[in-house]
Amino acid sequence: MKKAIFIAAILFISCGKNSDHHAITVPDVIQANNTRGNITGIIFLYDEDGTKLSDNGYVTVSIDNSTVSTTTDATGKFQLDSIPAGTYDISYSREGFGTGKIMGLYHAATNHATTVISKNESMAMNSSLAINNVVVQAFDPALQQLGVSGFHIVPVFDNPGGKEKWVHLFFSDNNNVSASYYQAETKIKASGSATQMNNFNLTTAWFESQGFQKGQAIFVKAYGDGFLADDYTNPLTNQTVFPSLSTKPSPVATFVLPATK
Questions:
Q1: What is the pTM (predicted TM-score) of this model?
Q2: Residue, of 212 and 144, whose pLDDT is higher
């Protein structure tokens, strides 16, 4: 009888250790072990200009609200081991690359089946651009006489190589405009030259479609950005996150929306 009690105690302790292997709360250890499976995926890394890196390793991949995490190998592949069935939000990050999200992933784990994330994720290196200024110029008077009014919005930055860079513009109705406080945003490519006035033609009609009013003062700030469209909504704050933005944005520029179209 003592021997049977001793064996039962060992089994209880062993199960307790297994249940703590991943810090995910499950109601029944035995049932959870019957419905566990791996989650795998791939994350590719790119530089600021869109060139894929040869080493896609060292990206930390974590299940939100848990202590479960792993890292990608050089090919970008990751595997989260022995995860109970459920629906998960997954975060990934690497220093110099910001963050990314895979939200609402359903993991069936039926018969220990692996869930393969079919869409490869991508991360762009954080922009290193320092935007010196934003030049705002009204459309040519001849164009305005035709009934089309608007502005050339031109970010200015040092660019010895001359290759166009991605820049994110944020607009607001007050001078606190930023990547987290804005009314409208758009992403453009720019050479950094104050005289380059193509590709940045924003009409009065466009600003009105974003909720601005004729005669209203508008404030703009520009950030260097990566080439990827990698923004996502933070499920906790419901705010849009732009993970590749530079930490050196432009000063705020302002202009007044004309009263004509």
A1: 0.79
A2: 212
